[in-house]
Amino acid sequence: MKNKVVLITGGSSGIGKALALEAARRGAIVVVAARNIEQLRKVEQQCLILSGRPSFSYQLDVTDPDQIDQVLGKINHEVGGIDVLVNSAGLGDFSEAVHEQWSTFAQMVKVNLLAAMYISRCVAKQMMDQGYGAIINLGSIAGKIPTPNSAAYSATKAGLIQFDDVLRMEVADYGVQVLTVNPGPIDTPFWRHTSPNSQYRSHLPKWMFISVDDLAREVWDNVGYKTREINVPTYVSYLSWVYRMIPGLGDWTIKKFFDFQQNRSEL
């Protein structure tokens, strides 16, 4: 990671921030992008201290393709070619599908799926030309194991996982890695915001929650290798397989454990 240019969207908090700080510890030149410029600048300063190398921050609304083009152009001019891209920006709204609004559906698709697809597409072109690079997209276990009240969110994450599977084949011959990271429940502001009364956290045992710092270390440990996916905790990979084999039993079990309402959250 030393002196590698790492661009992280959603880098102002949560998983994105943890990935930025861990990349800085490993000597990377960290570039963070998100809407909250004040939080971004704090992360930028932390990365500068940790890495001893230049760090950068750019305000970005990932739902605006024109802004994406402008920011990527600035990064190329002011920082240099991107060696590693992390699409970490995400949005969740946990309600029954029949109660969701069109605007909420559209916003989740734009943030969770379309933005990651478009930014990956733009950066992949550059990486193919330079003959190396890594694209890391934050999926979710929700994209593999469905739970009630997460239809739209799960759909966007399942779509991103499938997008990565195809992109991986298309760029493999150019030395570009595509890594999909599918975390389960993780201790970030995402869940603290989505469940202000702690309903979600109290519904699940503490051992199910993942440390965001442990996740960040595992992600960077797998960059530069042929790792396709990181599913954490590891046992969810087996649960996903069981669900596909016995979907009826899976539906019954999941509904018993996860059938409760949530609220809106942003990573």
Overall description:
The longest helix has 29 residues, at 102-130. The protein is an alpha/beta fold and 267 residues long. It has one domain (5-266): 3-Layer(aba) Sandwich (Rossmann fold). The strands form two sheets. The protein has a seven-stranded parallel β-sheet with strand order 3-2-1-4-6-7-8, with helices on both faces. A two-stranded antiparallel ribbon has the order 5-9. The protein is built from ten helices and nine strands. The radius of gyration is 18 Å and the shape is globular. Helices cover 51% and strands 16% of the residues. α2 (37-51) links the parallel β2 and β3 (56-59). Pfam families: adh_short. Residues 4-194 form the Ketoreductase domain.
